[in-house]
Amino acid sequence: MNTRYHSAMNLQGRTVLVTGASRGIGRAIALRLAREGTAVAVNYHHSATDAENVVALIHQQSGRALAVQADVGDAGEVRAMAQRITRDLGAIDILINNAGVLARGDLADFDYTQMESMRRTNVDGLVHVTRAVVDGMKARGFGRIVNLTSIAAHGTTLSGTTFYAATKAAVITLTRRFALELGRHGITVNAVAPGFIQTDMATGGRSPAEAQATIDAMAARAMVRRTGLPEDIANAVAFLVSPESSFITAQTITVDGGRMDYIAHP
Ligand code: NAP
Fold this sequence. Notes:
Bound molecules: NADP nicotinamide-adenine-dinucleotide phosphate
Radius of gyration: 18 Å
Number of helices: 9
Strand content: 5-15%
Largest sheet: 7 strands, parallel
Oligomer: single chain
Number of strands: 7
Order of helices and strands: HEHEHEHEHEHEHHHE
CATH superfamily: NAD(P)-binding Rossmann-like Domain
Strand order of the largest sheet: 3-2-1-4-5-6-7
CATH class: Alpha Beta
Distance between the termini: 40 Å
CATH architecture: 3-Layer(aba) Sandwich
Number of domains: 1
Shape: globular
């Protein structure tokens, strides 16, 4: 890779926790930050083999990484995970709250149990993990936190995402409030709002033909006429945890190729 670019990031010696890093966007973030020289904790919920594969890829590049199982919605599991990472990898300097789920539903077909389970991961999970790492960051006077929201929170027109959008709107608000609380301790808190990114979440449960039709439809709604790759999001996250962005906090960076289908803003 380009070594001048590598040194510009200057993340050598930092330890990062990426939640939901076994697949999709989290996986790309873990691989990218490992390339920048960080030691990476690869959190997962169910996909142990996928998480171990991410760790193996990082080891192949002579990086440091550890797979750690925890349900982010369970505060006890999250605390145990943070302790293990600190012991085995190092004090957590950078947190990427990426783990998330999409339970489809609109007003007409609201399912409380499903929606509560989604909120538990997307909102409570973010709070649990942030609380588990933030005291250490405060004590050291340094921290970088990036939360994964979605353009759904800005008000896209995609059906089936009404309550998912609400959980992601909460992520934006928590980003701003945590930034307000933590800025004086040398901790920045920002969010990234992806558009349509080709992962299991975006295309899962569809036949290859249906998935391609969805990709084509979403590409047509973006100014740059393509859908995103997990690496597009990893690039934005890498910038937000780098020294170059130390004066940026409480912000949401939208990475959506210029999506045009926003409610009431055609
Ligand atoms: P994905 O492919 O479905 O992967 C989700 C990841 O989150 C997996 O690693 C999964 O772990 C983990 N996860 C789920 N529930 C968890 C829990 N309770 N505890 C710990 N880990 C958990 O999703 P993705 O598309 O990469 O999405 C990543 C983030 O970006 C999410 O927050 C999502 O809302 C957001 N986003 C995605 C898109 C998109 O188009 N893809 C757009 C906007 C925003 P296991 O593998 O172990 O289950």
